[in-house]
Design brief:
Layout: E1 4-7, E2 10-13, E3 18-24, E4 32-39, E5 46-51, E6 58-60, E7 68-73, E8 78-83, E9 92-100, E10 108-109, E11 113-118
Parallel strand pairs: 2-11
Antiparallel strand pairs: 1-3, 3-8, 4-5, 4-9, 5-6, 7-8, 9-10, 9-11
């Protein structure tokens, strides 16, 4: 079992930056791939990015490439999402998710943290 708790959301002006954190419980954090997803009002949840268990490979949605970056600290059981050059369309609830290394399902989710970008 993995429990995930996001933090770091808030209100920021367009062009600004935020860093989200996701703290995970459990001693096997390093064996999980981690992902970030987001859901805007009236829209479906969408993939933002993911990072492999070793932290060596990241993947991003086209909409955030070049602006967002993920990293992880396995010693702290924490994954980060650095968001730069934020746009109003980045406004959403951001969710952290975990997936067993080599698995296909995101089986564990956090409760989400709100990010609001004002024009």
């Amino acid at each position: 079992q993995v429990q995930l708790v996001e933090s770091g959301g808030g209100l920021v002006q367009a062009g600004g930056s935020l860093r989200l954190s996701c703290a995970a419980s459990g001693r096997t954090f390093s064996t999980y791939s981690m992902g970030w997803f987001r859901q805007a009002p009236g829209k479906e949840r969408e993939f933002v990015g993911s990072i492999r268990s070793s932290g060596g490979m990241t993947t991003y949605a086209d909409s955030v490439k070049g602006r967002f970056s993920m990293s992880r600290d396995n010693a702290k059981n924490t994954v980060y999402l650095q968001m730069n050059s934020l746009k109003p369309e980045d406004t959403a609830v951001y969710y952290c998710a975990a997936r067993m290394s080599g698995g296909s399902m995101w089986g564990y989710w956090g409760q989400g943290t709100q990010v609001t970008v004002s024009p």
